[in-house]
Every structure is written in C-alpha cells, then in structure tokens.
Amino acid sequence: MSIDARNLFKIKSLWRAIPVALILVLAHPTAIRAQQQEDFDKYKIRIDTFWFYSNPSGNVQGSADSGSVDLQKDLGFNTYSTFAGKIDWKFTRKNHLYFVGSSFSQSRQTVLNRTIVFQGQTFVVGSTTQSSLKSNLFAPGYQYDIIRRKRGHLGIAVQVDLFDSSARISAAAQVINGVQQAAVSASGSLLAPIPVAGPEFRLYLLNSPRLFVEGNVYGMYFGGYGNFVSTSDSIGVTLTKHISINAGYQLGSRLVVNNNSSSDRIGVRLTQKGAIAGLEFSF
C-alpha cells in the first residue's frame, strides 16, 4: 500500500468516526439534563409501613335499641398501638393504583359506672364486663397527580374504604349489691363500604438529605347513612435510594356509620388520633 493510500484510509476512518462522536457529545448533556430533572420520589412500587399510637374515642349503638355505649367512659378503652400499611403501584408518572390496610382491635375489662343496653341486653351498673371492639379497614384506591415536579406532587385520590367492624360485651353471673345477676352477653357486626376522596401531597424541602413533608385529607358524607373524614401529616427523610423514614401526627380519623332500626346493622362512631412513625421502601 502506498503512502497516499494510507492517508486516504485514515481520512475515511476519521469521517466515519465523526457521526459517532457527535452522537456521544450531544447525548452527554441530554443525559445530564434528564438526570437533573428526575423526580426525587421516582419509583414504580412503594411500600409504606406505619406504627400508630392511637387515642380512640366514640361509641357503638346496638341495632335493637336506641342507646349508645361510650368507648372511654363506659368500657374504659384508652390509648393503644397498632399498625397500618400501604402498597402503591405508580404505573405511569402521574397515575397510581394502591391498597391500604389498618386495624383497630381492643379488649377491656371494666366495672360499669352506669347501666347500659346493647343489642337488647341490659348490663346493670356495678357489673364487671369484658368488652371487645374490632374495626379493620381495607381500601383499594386510585390517585392522579394533577401537579408533579422534581420536588414533589399534588394529587387527587379516590378510594373505597371497607370497614369490617364487630363489638361484643359480656358479663359473667355475679352478685351486685346483694342481688344475683345472671350471665349476659351481646354482640353485633358491621360491614360498611364507604367511598372517599381528597387531596394528597409531598414536597421535598432539601436536596441532601432529601427532607420532605407530606399530608392528605380524605372524606365523604352520606346523609343518614354516615360519613368518614381523616387527615394526617408527617415529615420524612430519605436514607438511601430505596429507604425513607417518616414521623408525624394523624390529626383525626372519624368514622360514623348510623344504625338502622329496620335492619340488624349496628352503629359505630369511632375517632382516632395520635402519633405515627414508619418506614418507606421504594423500588
């Protein structure tokens, strides 16, 4: 091969390399810009687990009577620890499908300071009673982020809260003020689907560490049937790419399902509030 032929080969090779080099040069800043615009909370699957230190209040009403039984004053229910969880599938940048679950379950033994009636059964003042109340929540939902930016989002969520509640009060045979009282027991249950909707947000305040605040308000009113409203706020920090911790306060979660004299449905008025803390896993 002559010298001129070698130079011609080098020139042709150089021209072939120029398009590849241009692509690499142009792609590099584009990749940097894309990385700079990437959402702080980018994920496909997110799992939230919460510890909730709740202070419950409210009452239950039996289907066979018009009276109500106060959870704190009559039955001695007080603060307790429980857990809640959420699985969120963000199948597009702004669309979510999720599932929420939580549990309320307490049992108490107390001496009644007044006579109460539940499900047609009378429990006289001074009776030592054993009572239990369970109210589990299961809620599938959909969320659309009407605003989503690098530092956070504002979304609207719609979910169906399915409350599976049951109450039981019993008293063994006992002597009260010299009078023999027979054993008595009463129980009732409630399965109530309640659709709710409301806004939800998250805002990142710092780049490093990634400190954020978040909150939500959900609710719906159904006239004579009942209503539900809840709101919670928390602050969190991202520890790694996949793990965050957060803590805050659930200002209120108020469930009202009225009983109906024409059915066997019991009524429940349950309000919970207290501190929350948890871990979040994003993938």
Topology, element by element:
Layout: H1 3-36, E1 45-54, E2 57-61, E3 68-70, E4 80-90, E5 95-111, E6 116-118, E7 121-123, E8 128-149, E9 152-171, E10 174-176, E11 179-181, E12 184-204, E13 211-221, E14 226-238, E15 243-257, E16 267-282
Antiparallel strand pairs: 1-4, 1-16, 2-3, 2-16, 4-5, 5-8, 6-7, 8-9, 9-12, 10-11, 12-13, 13-14, 14-15, 15-16
Poorly predicted ranges = 1-12, 17-35
CATH architecture of the largest domain: Beta Barrel
Question: What is the top-level CATH class of the largest domain?
Answer: Mainly Beta
Largest sheet features: 10 strands, antiparallel, barrel
Q: How many structural domains in the coordinates?
A: 2
Question: Helix proportion of residues, in percent?
Answer: 10-25%
Structural class: mainly beta
| Mean pLDDT across residues | 82
Approximately what portion of the residues adopt beta-strand conformation? over 45%
- For CATH, the homologous superfamily of the largest domain is named as OMPT-like
- CATH topology of the largest domain, by name, is Lipocalin
Q: Could you walk me through the main structural features you see in this protein, from its secondary elements to its overall organization?
A:
- This protein is mainly beta and 283 residues long.
- The protein has 2 domains: 1-37; 44-282, Beta Barrel (Lipocalin).
- The chain is built from 1 helix and 16 strands.
- It has a 10-stranded antiparallel beta barrel. The protein has a two-stranded antiparallel sheet with strand order 6-7. Strands 10-11 form a two-stranded antiparallel sheet.
- A hairpin with a 2-residue loop joins β6 and β7 (121-123).
- The radius of gyration is 29 Å and the shape is elongated.
- The two termini are 58 Å apart.
- 24% of the residues are buried.
- Residues 1-12 and 17-35 have low confidence and may be disordered.
